[in-house]
UniProtKB/TrEMBL annotation:
Main localization, broad class: membrane
Highest taxon, organism lineage: Eukaryota
Name this polypeptide is given: Uncharacterized protein
One Gene Ontology CC term in the entry: membrane
Residue ranges of coiled coil: none
Amino acid sequence: MAITDVPPADCPPWLVPAHTVLLSIGVLFWDATYLLMTHRALSTKSYGMPLLALAINLSWELVTVLFVCETMLDTIGFFFWLFLDIGIVYTTVLFGPRDWEGTSPFIGKNIGWILGIMTAVAFVGNYTFTMWWLSEPGIGFGNKTGKWWRGTEGIDSSELTFWTAGVAQVVLSAGSIAMLVVRGHSGGTSYAIWFSRFMGTVFGLVLDNLLMWWYWPDGYIWLVHPFAVFLWGTSIACDVVYPFLLYQIRRSEIQLPDGSLKRGDGSSMSVSDKKTR
């Protein structure tokens, strides 16, 4: 990761520390996202992260902490994310049967097994890609001079992390929109969760790398590769649209006495629901 990179001599000395600050801000926003998502899920009795996104995210964090992290700061950060994942996984398994009873009871009844299988498959995919990437110097786009990983120059763990995290991010951003539309209610999500998730992406995936690309274009040319632009561009586009869709959904949803939410017809709203607006 960039904290071990050695930029060219013409780069400002504050470049890597500034990148670390931006990345740390993104990490804090994601910490808040996980906590808020668990709290909202318990309050509304609906899990908050799409199944595929959760499986990919879990596998990415596991592979990264086991095989990619090289500093204590990175390792602690990923272990903390895995700890926070416990609440998200718990609420997914707990409320999954209820969330799926109207569309696919089979998925709801077996959601724990399904999530486990999806995570295992995603782990294999992440692992094989990561091991290939780390197998020899020079893999990836751009000049790898100054890119260090565990004492070897030319292995770019920053680019590796971007590709693996970028795929996870676009699946989460697009999947969150799909889940909101299919459900027709805001169970498991909120404006605070959206904002925190969006800021986590902006600071932790885009701005930190854009800063490095601006001052070190040869080393971060991959950030403007068409597929990279598709990943972070699509993620941001989905996240920009999301609050407007959430607003429309919340206008019509109905809150039940137990705090859970259901799809409304747009013409009626419970008294308790109105009080939450």
